[in-house]
Amino acid sequence: MGKSWTLFLAKGGCTLAVAVPLERQDSSGLLIMREIESKLRFKERLAISLMDLSGYVTAPLNHRGFYNLTKRIGLLCGTDERVLVRLNEDSVYELLLRDPYWNRLVHKPFRYEPEIFHCFELIKDQSFSFVDGGANWGFWSVLASSEAYGAVETVAYEPMPATYAFLERNAALNCARFRVVQKAIAAHAAKDIPMTASADAEASAVGASIAVDQPGRGQAVYVDADGIDEVLRGLNSEVPVVIKLDLEGVERSVIEASQWIDDHDCLLLFEDHAKDPDCEVTQAVLDKEWPIYFFHDDGRLDRIESVAQAAALKTISNRGYNFFGVYPGGSFDRRFRDFMESK
What we know:
Blueprint: E1 4-11, E2 14-25, E3 30-33, H1 42-58, H2 66-73, E4 82-88, E5 91-96, H3 114-123, E6 129-133, H4 139-144, E7 154-157, H5 161-173, E8 179-181, E9 184-186, E10 190-196, E11 209-210, E12 221-227, H6 228-233, E13 241-245, H7 251-257, E14 266-273, H8 280-287, E15 292-295, E16 301-304, H9 307-313, E17 320-326, H10 331-342
Parallel strand pairs: 6-7, 6-13, 7-8, 9-12, 13-14
Antiparallel strand pairs: 1-2, 1-4, 2-3, 4-5, 10-11, 10-12, 14-17, 15-16, 15-17
Helix pairs in contact: 1-2, 7-8
């Protein structure tokens, strides 16, 4: 039998505790839901059961269609029906049952960005700081700041106001152990940058980007940005830094503009979207002559030597792919190289 933890249904000012058995998910150590024994209302119980079922149905297709199914199932729930999920012994994460980007976590076998878990597992016994650029609701900030990953100094940046409110909430739920900043990260500091999400975006606003004149985008929100070097110089510790850049289109300019990363031991965790066949972000890191790696879902690690190799990995057109660039000769470089040589 697995251990047990508590699932909370937060509604208004009340929090309802629900006993849930646990098991561990492969090497990531992420605690995941196996069964719910709850006093949830019928609609919430039904919705969670259907989400779980839809995960199994779509599993043979690598969960293609899972998002769309959970989006429709989520309509059974109220617009502000929140679930607080325990991720590990000292970490909780609040999500909306109606948000299909995050509600997929209720399905046991679903692994969210397993490549980042593999990276954290590889480096968790060394000291580092974590900058979460484009943090959304703070999933990775919650985990990086937990004891499981060394309770490292963590700073989370999220510019979109409604999304930032969830990030701030998740920081508070975890004893405010990581710092949150309601700004974007850019090549240089700037004010009043117009940003939009899709007109039909969910509450998490995944895919928000600097405003462009194209159909299907919502009303622009004006946000401020800190320059990348300003962000990195503002860290309190002097240990190597993991820099997550999920900046929806400005990753390349940020990487090219930073002088700090050229002189410090760091790891760039950057997104290269399949909609960019030229792999411009990967090219920017290759131009620095940095080693680049790619974790497969099953934990296999590849060294990326060319744009063509990176492009061949991006097989799903609407997905962003995470790559890992490491400062040459630094601690992360040694760790990744040793891992490759051990296989």
